[in-house]
Structures are given as structure tokens and as C-alpha cells.
Amino acid sequence: MEETISLQDIFQTLKKRLGMIAGITIAAIVIAAIISFYVITPMYQATTQILVNQQSSQSQQVTTSEIQTNLQLINTYSEIIKSPAILDIVNAELDLELTASQLASKITVSNANNSQILAVSVQDESHAVATDIVNTIATVFQKEITTLMNVDNVNILSPAMHSENPSPVSPNKVLNMAIAAVLGLMIGVGLAFLLEYLDTTIKSEKDVEDLLELPVIGLVSPITEKDLQKSTRRRA
């Protein structure tokens, strides 16, 4: 015997378990809110921009070949910024008590396509600390690159600024709660259909027909106590 599920059956199952689905969804949102607001430590980000631009000694104009050379050096510079050669000096100047690898994990270096600008970002639990770190990295890098690469084509374009009321970059509380709502809804709906599938009790004449594969030839309507009392009074 094949079982077919109609849209009406689906809606009926969802309606029947609506309270459970709503409860699981709300519980997931509340848990995500508690974790986002009270458990996860907020992280702040500070960013500085570094311009890679070789200055020509013979002409005030920068040639196309010089720009291409600078663009090719950007990937190398991105690795140098996160190397112990730079970060050990930053650690010493700021007395961070971090290893070079621990400090490197806080740093993100990005570059837009065909751009000579490097964006160096640092995330930390303190916005002031993140700002000090990223500005020190830029300063140390600008100084040390002349020795490491024997070039002088790095300028600090835009240093990070301290802020009295910074906004954390993580956690994204609204996004976390939205994801929790979707997951809670999916779990609730899945559990509703699972419980309906595991429920093998007979509830209607259709269930009898499906189970016995025999037609129903008669029904006994339920008799309430009120109907029984009316019937007794009529006979009396």
C-alpha cells in the first residue's frame, strides 16, 4: 500500500504542531540573543591605508611600468607586514606580550583590484589597542621596508583614528538571531513531521480504511453525557 501526502495533510500537520514549531523558533532566537549579547566578546576593528607609490627622481610623473612594479610588490608587502620582521618590533614597541603568530592572527591585509593602496586592519577586544597596533604596524613597516627591500615607495595614506564610541564589528547580533530563527523553524518543522510519521494511532475512518483496506460501512457517533440525559428524559 502506497502512502500519499497531500498539501492538505502537510498544512494540517503544521497547524497541529504550530505551538511546538513556534516554541522551538522562539527558544532558538532567545538562545542566540543571550550568546550574542552576553557570551561572545565584542571585537573592534581599526584600519589604516598604506600607499605603494614609487617616486621617480628624474620626473614628477609616474610611468605605467612603475605602477605595474608597485602592484606586483603589493602581494610581497602583504606577507612582509604579517612577518616576524615587522611584528616583533611592533610587539616590543607596544609591549603586547604576544608572539608574532598571535599578533598576525589579528591582522588582515587587503587590496582592491588594480589599486596601489593596502588596507591593514586589526581586530581586538579594545578599539584603542587595535588602533595603536595598526598605526604602529604601518609606521614600522614604512621604516623597515627601506632596509628589507631597498625601496622607498611606501607612504601612510590614512592612519586609524581613536573613537570614543566605537561600534564592534562582531558579533553581528541581528544576523545571529536571524540565522537562529531560520534554524529553529527548520528544526521545528522537521520535528513536527517526524512526530506525525511516528504517530501510528488511528484517529479517523480514513485511517481504518487505509489500515484494513476495507470500506467503512457504518459509523458510531460519540454520545455525550448531555445527549444521554436528553434521551433518558424523552423515554421517561
TrEMBL record:
Keywords: Cell membrane, Membrane, Transmembrane, Transmembrane helix. It is a multi-pass membrane protein. It comes from the Bacteria. Its main location: membrane. It is found in: Cell membrane. InterPro entries: Bact_polysacc_biosynth/exp (IPR050445), GNVR (IPR032807), LPS_length_determ_N (IPR003856). GO terms for cellular component: plasma membrane. Residues 131-194 form the Tyrosine-protein kinase G-rich domain. The chain crosses the membrane at residues 21-40, 174-195. One of its GO terms (molecular function) is protein tyrosine kinase activity. Residues 3-93 form the Polysaccharide chain length determinant N-terminal domain. Belongs to the CpsC/CapA family. PANTHER family: FERRIC ENTEROBACTIN TRANSPORT PROTEIN FEPE, TYROSINE-PROTEIN KINASE. This is Capsular biosynthesis protein.
